[in-house]
Amino acid sequence: MSDEDSEVKVSWLPIIGLFLCVTSLWFGSQYLYLLFDGYSLTSSDSAKGEFGDRFGAINALFSGLAFAGLIYAIFLQRKELEETRKELKGQKDALNLQNKTFLRQSFENTLFNMLTLHSNFIRSWEATFKKMYTDYVWFFDKETGSEQARLAEAYSKMYKERQAILSQYFRSLYRIFLFIHESKEITDDQKHFYSKIVRSQLANYELIILFYNFLYSPHAGNFTKLATDYALLNNLNPELVVGSGDDIQRLDVKIYGKEYPVKLQAYDTASRPSQSPS
Questions:
Q1: DSSP string for 60-82
Q2: pLDDT by residue (tens digit) across 14-45?
Q3: Minimum mean pLDDT among 43-52, 140-149, 159-168: which range?
C-alpha cells in the first residue's frame, strides 16, 4: 500500500468517528426515553407526539453534524486541490527546464555546425592569411604620405586582391557572432562564454587582418560593434601591428578584452614590422 493511499484512509477516520458517535447518541437517547419516561407502545397519541418532540435536539445535532461533515469534505477537497496544484506546478517546472535544455542543445548544435563550416573554409586558406599580411606590409612600405593614409591605402589594395576570400570570411564570422548575440535561448554570460570558444579558433594572422578590417573597411560598422561587445581582438598580437602602433588606440579599448593594459606593457615597439618580412 502506498503512502498516498494511507493518507486518504487516515483522512476519513474523523468522518467514521462522527458517524459512530451520532448513531450511538441516537440509539442511546431512545433507550433512555424508553427506560425513564414511562413511554410504551400502548401510550396515547398525544403522549407519543410529546415523546417525538423530545427528539428535536437530536435532529438539531444531526443537522449540525451534517454541516460539519460538509465543511470537512470541503476542507479535504481543498487540500486535494492544493496537492494537485503543487503537482501540476512541479510538472510545469520540469517541462520548462526540459524545454530550456532542448533549446540550448539546439543552439549549440547550430553554432557548432556554423563553426565547422567556417573552419573547413579556413583550413583551405590558412596559409593565405599570412600571405595577405605580408602583402599588406609590402603595400604599406610602397605608399607615401602620412602613416594613417598609407595604412588605409595598403589595406584597400590588399583587400581588392583578396576580396573573394575576405568577403566570404568576414560574412561567415560576422554571422556566427550575430547568431550568438541575437540568441534568446542563452543568457548574456553564456553568450560571452560561447564567443570565447569562437575567439579561440582564430589564428594570429586572422586577427591582424580583422584588426585592419575594423579600422579601414567602410562596411565593417556592424561587425566592429559586435567585435567590441565580445572582445574579438582579445588575443591580438601587438607585435604584428604595422607602423608606430597608434592604430591600436583608434578602436574601442573593449575590443581587446580586460587584458588590454597588460598587453600594451608587453608591446615591444622595436619588434613591429615596418617593411615586408623576409
A1: HHHHHHHHHHHHHHHHHHHHHHH
A2: 667 666 776 676 666 656 555 555 555 555 55
A3: 43-52
pLDDT category at 158 given cuts 50, 70, 90 is very high
- The torsion of the CA quartet 229, 230, 231, 236, rounded to 10 degrees, works out to -140
CA–CA distances in Å: residue 76 to residues 8, 22, 62, 85, 111: 9, 21, 21, 14, 52
Per-residue model confidence (pLDDT) at position 278: 40
- Angle formed by the axes of helices 163-182 and 188-199, nearest 10°: 160
Higher pLDDT, 198 or 278: 198
Q: Which three cell numbers stand for residue 26?
A: 441516537
211 vs 221: CA distance, rounded Å: 13
Q: What is the pTM of this model?
A: 0.63
**Each residue's pLDDT tens digit, 219-269:** 888 999 999 999 999 988 888 988 887 888 888 889 988 766 555 555 544
Q: What is the DSSP string of 116-149?
A: HHHHHHHHTTHHHHHHHHHHHHHHHHH--S-HHH
Between CA 240 and CA 272 the distance in angstroms is 6
Among 48-52, 78-82, 124-128, 181-185, the least confident range: 48-52
Measured between alpha carbons, how far is 97 from 36 in angstroms, rounded to an integer?
A: 73
Distance CA 135, CA 160 (A): 12
Calculate the alpha carbon distances from 9 to 3, 71, 91 in Å: 10, 18, 26
Q: What are phi and psi of 201, to 5 degrees?
A: -85, -10
Cβ atoms of residues 244 and 147 within 8 Å: yes
* Integer CA distances (angstroms), 21 to 18, 33, 96, in order: 5, 18, 50
